[in-house]
Specification:
Helices cover 18% and strands 36% of the residues. It has a 4-stranded antiparallel beta sheet with strand order 1-2-3-4, covered by helices on one side. The chain has a single domain, classed as Roll (Nuclear Transport Factor 2, Chain: A), CATH 3.10.450.50. It is built from 3 helices and 4 strands; from the N terminus they run αααββββ.
Length: 136
């Protein structure tokens, strides 16, 4: 009798939205564009978790995009994402409020931001964000 074939379990998406392949992986690993600002926000969080700086730069609007993104600090662990609010601010503009939690050197951190996004030629881009002063 042949041995049973083991199937690898699908990887969970870092953003918490299901499996990676069906969630953020569609936008990080393929040329498929995120359909809206919240989906792009989630994919950017997952790209931070996975150190996919290529996706972060490609989805950052040219007007505010840095030349490079520093690698993550050694030992940084991302713990979760909570998208709190989304609102359209125009026909091709949106704002997404989120909290991302991480841990570094035994200390917990919280990044609370309201990020601005714009859509150009059918693609969403991160523009910038306002941090909550209590983040950190």
């Amino acid at each position: 009798m042949p041995a049973p074939t083991l199937r690898a379990e699908p990887s969970p998406c870092p953003c918490g939205g299901g499996t990676y392949a069906r969630c953020c992986g569609r936008y990080i690993d393929t040329p498929l564009a995120a359909p809206d600002a919240p989906a792009l926000m989630r994919s950017r969080y997952s790209a931070f978790v996975l150190d996919r700086r290529d996706h972060l730069l490609a989805t950052w609007h040219a007007s505010t995009r840095p030349a490079a993104i520093e690698p993550p600090a050694p030992g940084l662990r991302w713990l979760g994402l909570e998208v709190r609010r989304h609102r359209d601010t125009g026909p091709d503009a949106a704002e997404v409020e989120f909290v991302a939690r991480s841990k570094l050197a035994g200390r917990a951190h919280r990044l609370h931001e309201r990020s601005r996004f714009i859509r150009e030629a059918g693609r969403w881009f991160y523009v910038d964000g306002n941090l909550d002063p209590a983040s950190g």
